[in-house]
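Hi all, posting the design record for the shared folder.

TITLE: backbone redesign
STEP: 1 of 1
STRUCTURE INPUT:
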């Protein structure tokens, strides 16, 4: 526990190192003591404190975006090149050669509609996993809600997603597809992808702060997860009776729903999306509690 006496202050900002702060508002002219201590209860998430630091969250997101594009030769084109090149490879090998079904969609649209949300998820998860370790000097020098770090990492990838989504919209127009009412589901599906990256990232970022070899597992995890998701193939290949089990992979519901929402073709992934949403809720809640417990020792362990 650390304490700092601040004269003539009302609700001063957190100072020093620690895990959480309690500011004691006093009368003008009196001194106040800021106590910095870890959360005392398992369910003490202090989300209101995160909201109080929303301006800091904005600067973290803006910092990550600036670093990503600083001193790059072609700038935002990197965001477009990765899913476009992957789309070309998938179209050639999985579409033209393997002749996997595409649920009646042109192969480029079928694959690109999956790669845009998947590329965001892969990038956001990697950033979220490393964010605590990457900011270890900041964590050990000044107090702020540690939860801001994984949230900012998950949100910073939305800039790349927005650019990729514009290219995807152009693809659909070129292939003669027009928006339908299904497109109204796109914000909800994007939110589901954000919470999936954040929920899994909370677990992995906490584990990575405790065990540094976690980051070596991420490339294998992402490769396995991509082939366990309907990126290169449609989820219609999964038998109907096992569709709910397949939906426990949250990205299955996101990708299937994204294809349906952006093209307006096929059936809404009702059961798949419902199972994915339930799984995301469990992962996020569990990640919040686990990250909250880790927060008590992160400044010492990182």
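Okay, here is what came back for every position:
SEQUENCE:
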């Amino acid at each position: 526990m650390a304490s700092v006496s601040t004269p003539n202050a009302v609700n001063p900002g957190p100072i020093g190192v620690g895990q959480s702060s309690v500011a004691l508002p006093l009368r003008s002219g009196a001194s106040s003591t800021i106590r910095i201590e870890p959360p005392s209860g398992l369910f003490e998430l202090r989300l209101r404190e995160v909201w109080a630091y929303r301006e800091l969250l904005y600067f973290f997101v803006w910092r990550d975006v600036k670093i990503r594009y600083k001193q790059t030769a072609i700038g935002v084109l990197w965001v477009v090149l990765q899913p476009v090149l992957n789309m070309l490879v998938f179209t050639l090998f999985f579409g033209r050669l393997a002749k996997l079904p595409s649920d009646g969609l042109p192969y480029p649209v079928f694959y690109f509609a999956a790669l845009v949300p998947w590329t965001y998820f892969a990038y956001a998860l990697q950033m979220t996993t490393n964010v605590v370790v990457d900011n270890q000097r900041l964590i050990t020098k000044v107090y702020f809600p540690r939860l801001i770090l994984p949230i900012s990492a998950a949100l910073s990838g939305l800039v790349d997603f927005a650019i990729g989504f514009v290219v995807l919209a152009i693809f659909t127009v070129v292939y003669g597809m027009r928006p339908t009412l299904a497109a109204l589901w796109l914000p909800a599906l994007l939110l589901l992808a954000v919470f999936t990256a954040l929920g899994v990232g909370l677990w992995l970022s906490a584990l990575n702060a405790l065990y540094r070899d976690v980051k070596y597992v991420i490339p294998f995890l992402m490769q396995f997860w991509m082939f366990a998701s309907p990126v290169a193939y449609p989820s219609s290949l999964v038998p109907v009776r096992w569709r709910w089990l397949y939906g426990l992979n949250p990205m299955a519901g996101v990708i299937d729903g994204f294809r349906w929402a952006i093209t307006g073709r096929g059936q809404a992934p009702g059961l798949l999306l419902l199972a994915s949403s339930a799984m995301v809720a469990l992962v996020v809640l569990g990640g919040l509690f686990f990250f909250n417990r880790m927060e008590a020792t992160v400044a010492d362990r990182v």
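COMMENT: The chain has two domains: 1-38, 44-295.
Let me know if anyone wants the other runs.
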